């Protein structure tokens, strides 16, 4: 299945070091012919970091997609009853978001979008970026790996020497992962080396 004509939600959380790659993937998604809608978490809307200013990322996402950004819980909630997304990816998906999602917490626009989308039994894809994937968050990742309608962009350890618990997604496999998830399949192998 290809993404042409599909409505793809892309939700940003606060792993700012991955935003350059995320923006590249936004551009790639648009070239597939998908209608791309972005959701930004509170942190991603408001925190400036050494990787750039929040307002610049919001502006760039809006320019790439041609669509307004969903910025509030109230704006994200209709994703459920209106069912307008075919698939949603959280890119990047931080450890904080993973933990909250695994425990049913809905306190940001991104988590509301995920909850609302899953209500429709449509695929939710996680593109993880977390320093504690092999630490405190491993139990949450394990839970989500076994949750119906949730799929993962393949991921691996990005720096096993300096950050042995850290794992990030292979964002270059995003389109292929979304295509598989729309067919209710997990792209394999889900764990892939960066070495």
UniProtKB/TrEMBL annotation:
SUPFAM superfamilies: Homo-oligomeric flavin-containing Cys decarboxylases, HFCD (SSF52507). Pfam families: Flavoprotein. Transmembrane segments: none annotated. It comes from the Bacteria. GO terms for molecular function: catalytic activity. Residues 6-177 form the Flavoprotein domain. InterPro entries: Dipicolinic_acid_synth_B (IPR014214), Flavin_trans-like (IPR036551), Flavoprotein (IPR003382). This is Dipicolinate synthase subunit B. It comes from Candidatus Scybalomonas excrementavium. The lineage of its organism: Bacteria, Bacillati, Bacillota, Clostridia, Lachnospirales.
């Amino acid at each position: 299945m290809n993404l042409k004509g599909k409505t793809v939600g892309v939700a940003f959380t606060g792993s700012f070091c991955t935003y350059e790659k995320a923006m590249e993937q936004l551009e790639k998604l648009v070239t597939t012919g998908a209608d791309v809608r972005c959701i930004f978490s509170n942190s991603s809307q408001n925190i400036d970091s050494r990787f750039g200013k929040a307002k610049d990322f919001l502006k760039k996402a809006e320019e790439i997609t041609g669509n307004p950004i969903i910025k509030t819980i109230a704006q994200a909630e209709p994703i459920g009853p209106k069912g307008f997304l075919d698939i949603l990816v959280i890119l990047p998906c931080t450890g904080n978001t993973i933990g909250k999602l695994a425990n049913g917490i809905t306190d940001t626009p991104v988590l509301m979008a995920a909850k609302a989308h899953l209500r429709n039994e449509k695929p939710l894809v996680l593109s993880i970026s977390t320093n504690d994937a092999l630490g405190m968050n491993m139990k949450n990742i394990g839970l989500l790996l076994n949750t119906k309608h949730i799929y993962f962009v393949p991921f691996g350890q990005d720096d096993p020497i300096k950050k042995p618990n850290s794992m990030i997604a292979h964002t270059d496999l995003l389109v292929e992962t979304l295509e598989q998830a729309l067919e209710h399949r997990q792209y394999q192998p889900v764990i892939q080396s960066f070495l």
